Amino acid sequence: MSSASRTRNSRSSSTWRNWAGNVAARPVREARPASVQELADTVRSAAGEGLRVKTVGTGHSFTSIAATDGVLIRPDLLTGIRRIDRRELTVTVESGTPLKRLNAALAREGLSLTNMGDIMEQTVAGATSTGTHGTGRDSASIAAQIRELELVTADGRVLTCSEKENPEVFAAARIGLGALGVVSAITFAVEPIFLLTAREEPMTFDRVTSEFEALHAENEHFEFYWFPHTGNCNTKRNNRSAGPAAPPGRISGWIEDEFLSNGLFQVVNSIGRAVPPVVPAIAKVSSRALSARTYTDIPYKVFTSPRRVRFVEMEYAIPREAAVGALRELKAMVDRSPLRVSFPVEVRTAPADDITLSTASGRDSAYIAVHMYKGTPYRSYFTAAERIMTAHGGRPHWGKLHTRDAAYFADVYPRFGEFTALRDRLDPERVFGNDYLRRVLGD
Asked: Which of 57, 183, 294, 433 counts the most CB atoms within 10 A of its CB?
């Protein structure tokens, strides 16, 4: 029996939806390959039938980047660690492995990624392909920690890509948008596990913005949340620590991370959606609900937080020096508008990197993310915020809502033509294309 016939294929009679519920797709069929060879056979077979191919992870993108009307690949059988190289300090992992499983497995081995985003539900390939990032003065996105990747191209070839092997593909495919092929395995740089001390503290909007550069320079990882309709922020500073570990207490941690940040937050957002005029009053209460706290733990337990309240999101990367001005413009816009915004605005940073379509490619960046509770009208708010961000040469997160197109990206990404030329070479028939990629990359 050939590996193609062993691949778990099924005719699709159901609709796939993303995590936020704002994107849906009805593929012709679904496939669950269990090896790179089965994955290559699936791609080759679909291309031979004239069907387009997309891989979906956990659906945490808010755009339709993974939607397809052809073959939908689910990578849930492509999971686990292939090898750990302790001399080179790398780990090679199958592309469908959820970040939470990778983080836990590395911790058991006494290892860790250097930096990560604030949620860990995504698959490693989904997170890196869309440019998922955390915050860092010196350490960049998850994709910037890739040392090698394995890519299945439109003709079923399996390419190994690194700085030494297929370097032009490596430069682009670390954040490849699913446009260059299907990532089947990723090799990350890791380091011996370390401790982080997190210091969470309320701070006024005026103080955070006036001291933003100092807070960024003095901390390895700095981020903050501004609560619209208030002058209040919550800040978080994460720095390496010699220990000892001092994690949050079980009860106090549950109150902060589950009750206040998820349970109560769900309730107040539901009230705000039903009765918008009460949102400013609720925001004033919510912005004071979280108290100052300090704790020390291993990285993934500090960097990541549970996110159970569903929302939609738009995030832009702008030059870091423009962050304070853009944020003040955003606050002034909200203050003078009839908008009612119940979700905080998140601000993070990243150093410049060398990935072709990374939102931090070639420039030190600040990220400003706006959210709205699921089911709440968001277009007016996002449109106004987007107008501010694009005036500063903003680059939208590839997996979050935006209205930009290929002409815009050709202007804000100096190496945009390099990426599209590579796509023309690797996927001339657009096996991995869809409507989203047609808009953002052209056709």
From this structure: 183
Two structure tokens written together for 231: 């002058």
Beta strands 221-226 and 232-241 are antiparallel
Model pTM above 0.90 = yes
N- to C-terminal Cα separation, the chain = 38
10 Å CB burial of residue 231 (0-12, 13-18, 19+) is middle
Q: Sheet holding 345-350: strands in order across?
A: 293-297, 195-204, 232-241, 221-226, 345-350, 365-373, 311-319, 395-396
- Separation between Cα atoms, residue 430 and residue 443, nearest integer Å: 8
Is 412 a residue whose pLDDT tops 70?
yes
Q: 221, 174 in Cβ contact below 8 A?
A: no
Nearest to 200 by CA among 226, 162, 235, 170: 235
Residues 79-93: tens digit of each pLDDT? 999 999 999 999 999
Backbone CA torsion sign across 85, 90, 93, 98: positive
Q: How many residues does the chain have?
A: 443
